[in-house]
Amino acid sequence: xxxxxxxxxxxxxxxxxxxxxxxxxxxxTATPSPAWQRPALAIAMLAVLAHAGVLLGMHRGALDLxxxxxxxxxxxVVSALTLFVSLSRPVAALGVVVFPLAAAxxxxxxxxxxxxxxxxxxxxxxxxxxxxxxxxxxxxxAAVLAIxxxxxxRGLRHRQFGPWLRALPPxxxxxxxxxRMIGAGFALLTLTLVTGALFVGNLFGQHLVHKxxxxxxxxxxxxxxxxxxxxxxxRGRRAVNLTLIGMAVLVLAFxxxxxxxxxxxxxxLPRL
Length: 272
Fold this sequence. Notes:
The protein has 272 residues and is an all-alpha fold. It contains nine helices and no strands. The chain has helices at 2-21, 34-58, 67-86, 95-112, 123-157, 163-167, 171-199, 209-232, 236-264. Helix 8 (209-232) packs antiparallel against helix 9 (236-264). The protein is globular. The two termini are 32 Å apart. The relative contact order is 0.11.
């Protein structure tokens, strides 16, 4: 049952991204139209629901924080948030990047990764993990928007107005949405650090010190960016660079130490 559901989710992700990308390969000035976007987003919604069903069944309805399971979970949440944002903002082109990546991570977790058993957690740790997961997902979307913003600025600078550039929302809207995502993600990242300090025992213990320090560094980077935006009107390349730097540090914080511990040193997932 679960392998079949995984295949359905993967197929729907790829079909949705294909429908969103198809008009971009047309000639002339064609851009993705609502006629393409609506069925694509509906299919993507089926993919997210199937993906969630796979996660619930495969990991026994619990939060599994093992490396590949955590990647698949993040991919599902990012896809769901992308869908939610696309309902009210013309950013469905994000799915061209997000949905194939979600399909790949689900495929690895379903068919290639070794089976894992979730580690038991109290409600406090579940709250901490959930907040961290949503914060990471929002900032991941911000990173994709930052790349889109860089592409737009480069295209405008070199007067290259191809269909991929026209598929993106207006530059000012991309920039506004970017900072809204960063603001929401920064608030939740702050809450993540607070709940970690309150609920996680030995936050600077051997297996958590790198994650804690890198999370604080990422928090400082995003905080600096928001302050610079508010105080000095930072935008453009500086905003893109700081967003990508902060996200890279956050990826190392969330998955770097996990990769080393689980896949290189083959140590069991530590209890928080």
